[in-house]
Input
Amino acid sequence: MKFGGTSVADAEAIGRVIEIIRGHITRYPAHRVPVVVVSAMSKVTDRLVEIGRLIQDGDGNKALSIVAELHARHEAAASALVSGDALRVLLTQITDDFTSLRANVERWMSTSEVTPAATDTLLSTGELVNSRIVAAAFTARGVRSAWVDARRVLVTDREFTAAAPDTERTTERARALVAPVVDAGDVPVLGGFIGATVDGEPTTLGRGGSDYSAAIFGACLDVDEIQIWTDVDGMLTADPRVVAEPYLVPQLSFAEASELAYFGAKVLHPSTILPAVAKNIPVRILNSRRPEVKGTMITADGRPHAGLTALACKRGLTVVDITSTRMLMAHGFLRRLFEVFERFKTPVDVVTTSEVSVSVTVDNPKRLDEIISNLWTFADVNVEREMAIVCVVGENLRSEPRLFARAVTALGDVPLRLVSQAASRRNITFVLRDADVTRAMNLLHGELFTAAVAS
Ligand code: ADP
Ligand code: ASP
Ligand code: MG
Output
């Protein structure tokens, strides 16, 4: 059971989590206790990112003031949840964690440099401290629990800030360090998002990675179900920040969930589904503020339902058009151009081709300048920024060809830059101007979802 930032935002939210776990244990006395994975308190990771930025900008004092602010916020939550000796022990640990963060910040300030490895040490503070608080709070409120250091369990490669798990080693560690806690009837509490290399250097799985941690631990421990507890009722038919009243999607397939997560449905980290698919473990999304709502169940088959499943959007992208400088696309042109993206470790999301040109969308613009100057050596390049992807997802796109026409028609006069239907025929992807996203999403949602529910 993974609880995201808003579900553990403060003492009150943590209190709700404790009741969810207690309710679960009471309802299923014959089951093993759940393994709990928690994120940092909401906005804490953003503040830690800011510390890194301030150090690089040479504003060390501001960075240290954020360290103090975060220390106070965690102390306040701990003091509201735990008391007596247990609180004294907890406050000492929290102080130790922030003292070591402060020492690191001072060290990084001396060079104004925060390497990717240092970034991961910095960012891991949020999950590290919060998981300690949650574990102590469980015990204080009568739910027997034990804190497990996620950095000792989740073994990753050395790709700092975007590390990948070493499944074999993590399975061994999870069996050695987490399973015995469950067997003893104590609820193990681990921080999500964080891990370490085999040598023990802290790493992170990338922003939003706690969902992925939960799925990795779930797969390593062969659990019955992976639950992602968050601040919405489940997977919705569209991002609620873009479309005012999306509907809950009660069931969907692993493949649909992957597409939605990849194309921007932030409720699930894009990699979450991988470990679940590998072990065929259902994933359920639930609302920690409304635990009685059934949420969304994600399984291999999903469930046949009429119409489409959901929309997603990914914003702030760049479209790169690459035109062969020869008349027609020369043999080897595609290989050469994709080699450039490979060399600069930059994935592309959508690709369309015409007779002489190829267009791709790029999410991470970090190495774009280098990519473009390399492409120029054999092609003409045109770049358009502030673009976005709007993605329509549904297994039924295969069996109901009219859905495609309805989607395109719904967009009316919204200018479309690229359109693609993946080989899976499970999604249609529109690339358009970022400024048109809200209108496009609402037009699609109004036509494809409101209408479907009304009929
Ligand atoms: P947590 O802190 O629990 O991990 P996140 O903020 O990462 O929560 O993810 C939940 C948020 O994802 C929701 O509050 C919502 O704004 C956003 N979201 C985007 N697309 C969707 C979608 N299709 N369904 C549900 N939520 C979505
Ligand atoms: N706390 C991390 C983040 O904000 C991981 C997560 O919330 O899943 O990115
Ligand atoms: Mg999240």
